[in-house]
Amino acid sequence: MRGIRRVQRWLRQFRPTTLILCYHRVTELESDPHLLSVTPQNFREQLQVLKRLYRVARLQDWASEQTIAARPTVIVTFDDGYADNFDKALPLLQEAECPATIFVTAGKIGDNREFWWDELDRVILEPAHLPEELSLSIRGHDHYWNTAATCDRQRRDGWHVLLEQKATPRQAAYVGLCHLLKVIDEVERSRVLDELCTWAGVERLGRSSHRSLTAPELCSLAASELIEIGSHTITHPQLSSLPASAQQFEIEKSKAMLESSIGRPVHSFSYPFGGVNDYNLDTIRMVRNAGFHCACASYPGLSSHATERYQLPRFVVRNWGGDYFAKTLKCWAAS
Q1: Are the CB atoms for 104 and 213 separated by under 8 Å?
Q2: What is the DSSP letter of 228?
Q3: If we measure between CA atoms, which residue out of 214, 238, 234, 216 comes closest to residue 103?
Q4: What is the distance between the alpha carbons of residues 37 and 84, in angstroms, rounded to a whole number?
Q5: pLDDT, tens digit, for every residue of 278-300?
Q6: What is the pLDDT of residues 1-50, one digit of tens each?
Q7: pLDDT at residue 28 in the model
Q8: What's the CA gap between 30 and 314, in Å, rounded?
Q9: At what angle do helices 281-289 and 244-262 cross, to 10 degrees?
């Protein structure tokens, strides 16, 4: 009988019973073109569902476990390092006694400029009026867009990039620029954003609603027993588009920067964007060699203790109420 139980325990480690969830923001936004935000009320309901149905663990704790948990496990993670992870998400995590792993973009700590996709939203979608045409040279190629349409209807309708309806000219410009800026390095991206702000007549200083964590906020997060801090590179590049030396710098330096800030080791990593084309075998090797114990991607899938530790799949959570979230979790767990 003992032998059978040992075999059963051994087999259970290969059963995919862990869901790793990917969040970005907990706040209310007028415009959320990439669907990154969950409202505080919906996040509270989602945490209540998780606590009722799952054992909730931090990523590093789960990755280092030597025994298999009796209950299915869920891991809450956040990407990017927005300030609302501290002032809105943390109080709700504490209220629910729910742990989480927060992957921080090290170079954005205390930065008064927004993440580039938010800056595009502010420059392209937000202004009431823009010049009629936009022309930019990116990587030696000229690009043109019609941008004369006003923004009021776009923002009222809650447009986002996953909608299948035909995009307006401004929306098309936003989507096109997102694709172009994703695959260029930080120097050229900053140049393009400078040109865009000059063209639109807006400042590059970001909105307080879209700011990144400050150094004191990061330290306060790290001081919580519920929170694990992980790395999300320095500048949030598509790593696969960078030369090997630049990839290595983004990975290793981000770890050193965060460890210096919080005064403790950083064991977990998250690939920016996280799709199968956003990192490569060299990236995985560099993450492992840098001393990280595990790394998360952003495509859906279940995990077990037999899952490859440097390509852990995650389910992206949207702004759902508790009942719909519970049904979605059930579908994910059965997938």
Answers
A1: yes
A2: E
A3: 234
A4: 10
A5: 999 999 999 999 999 999 999 99
A6: 565 555 445 444 445 589 999 999 999 998 999 999 999 999 999 999 99
A7: 96
A8: 26
A9: 30
Residue of 202, 206, 203, 177 lying closest to 192 (CA atoms) = 177
pLDDT tens-digit readout, 99-142: 999 999 999 999 999 999 999 999 999 998 899 999 999 999 99
The rounded mean pLDDT for the chain is: 92
Rounded Cα distance, 157 and 33, in Å: 11
| Domain residue extents for the chain | 2-111+211-333, 116-208
Q: Can you read off the two tokens belonging to residue 91? A: 């109080």
User: What is the DSSP secondary-structure string of 40-106?
Assistant: HHHHHHHHHHHHHHSEEE-HHHHHT-SS--SS-EEEEEE-S-BTHIIIIIHHHHHHHT--EEEEE-G
Q: CATH number for 2-111+211-333: choose from 3.40.50.720, 3.20.20.370, 2.30.30.60, 3.90.230.10.
A: 3.20.20.370
Q: Do the Cβ atoms of 65 and 309 come closer than 8 Å?
A: no
Q: 49-93: per-residue pLDDT in tens? A: 999 999 999 999 999 887 777 789 999 999 999 999 999 999 999
b (16+ CB within 10 A) / e for 206-235: beeebbbbeeebbebbbebebbbbbbbbbb
In angstroms, the CA 245 to CA 323 distance is 47
What distance in Å separates the CA atoms of residue 312 and residue 19, rounded to the nearest whole number? 10
Residue 214, Cα to own-chain centre: how many angstroms? 17
Exposure on the CB side of residue 318, measured as CA atoms within 13 A: 9
Looking at residue 36, what is its pLDDT? 97
Query: What is residue 38's DSSP assignment?
Result: E
CB 47 within 8 A of CB 59: no
Spatial CA neighbour of 266 closest among 291, 234, 284, 246: 291
Give the pLDDT score at 17.
Answer: 85
**How far apart, in whole angstroms, are the C-alpha atoms of residue 58 and residue 46?**
17
Whole-number Å distance between alpha carbons of 254 and 106: 6
Residue 320 in this model has a pLDDT that exceeds 50: yes
